[in-house]
Amino acid sequence: MLTLLASAAHATPMIYIDPAYQTALVGDTVFMDIVWDGSADPEYLGAWDIDIAFDPTVLSANSVTFYSAVDSFGCFPGISCDVTFGPGLLDIFEFSLDSPADLMANQDGLGNMFTIATLAFNAVGDGLSPVSFAGSLLTFGDELGNEIFPTLAGANVCVGASCPDTYQGVPEPGTIALLALGLLGLGWRRRVAQP
């Protein structure tokens, strides 16, 4: 139990797409932010290389806007940041040219929670498109370039007049319920094992 409490004190940073769900009509432009949240520990983001997958029959990638939280010098396309557009896939990277101390001060000033890029999509067809982190080559580095492993969370875009206002995803069991069930199972196992 003590190990469980100790691990809860060390929070994992997170990169997520915001908003998690939105609706649009064909012809609309849909904007989504890629957000870094390293505020709990704090954790710093000095480099990232991701692939974003989406349904090309529903969305078409339009543009990617980079921000200065990772690199205060800004984006130098092809050098410190870049994006490759493909059908159903965006390949995006950015790394910092800041010193570790400058990067940390910049991100501390933002509360270690900030938008690293904004994605713009054109809605081209009716349907539901996940917008998710894809592939096995997702790479993230801290202020020193050491690899870090943030939790990732994608989003969904529904295009069409019949889209619900809220996304009705697959319900997930609560963490507390799973933990309680596991502890009950351990207690039952010990009780049965005793002669």
Secondary structure: elements and pairs:
Elements: H1 2-9, E1 14-18, E2 21-24, E3 29-37, E4 47-53, E5 59-66, E6 81-86, E7 89-95, H2 100-109, E8 113-123, E9 127-133, E10 139-141, E11 151-153, E12 155-159, H3 175-193
Parallel strand pairs: 1-11, 2-12
Antiparallel strand pairs: 1-3, 3-8, 4-7, 4-9, 4-10, 5-8, 6-7, 9-12
GO molecular function, one term: carbohydrate binding
Pfam family, one: PEP-CTERM
Domain Ice-binding protein C-terminal: 170-191
Features:
single chain; 195 residues; alpha+beta; Immunoglobulin-like; seven-stranded mixed sheet; five-stranded mixed sheet; 19% helix; flat; disordered N terminus
Overall tally of structural domains: 1
- The CATH C-level class name: Mainly Beta
- Cα gyration radius (Å): 20 Å
Tally of helical runs: 3
CATH architecture: Sandwich
CATH third-tier fold name: Immunoglobulin-like
Give the biggest beta sheet: 7 strands, mixed
Low-confidence residue ranges: 1-9
Helix content: 10-25%
Principal-axis shape: flat
Provide the β-strand percentage band.
35-45%
The average pLDDT value, as a whole number, equals: 86
SSE-based structural type? alpha+beta
Secondary-structure element pattern, one letter each = HEEEEEEEHEEEEEH
Q: What would you note in describing this structure?
A:
By secondary structure, the protein is α+β, with helices and mostly antiparallel strands. It has a single domain, classed as Sandwich (Immunoglobulin-like), CATH 2.60.40. It is 19% helix and 38% strand. The protein has 3 helices and 12 strands. Strands 2, 4, 6, 7, 9, 10 and 12 form a 7-stranded mixed beta sheet that branches. Strands 5-8-3-1-11 form a 5-stranded mixed beta sheet, with no helix packed on it. The longest helix has 19 residues, at 175-193. It is flat. The two termini are 26 Å apart.
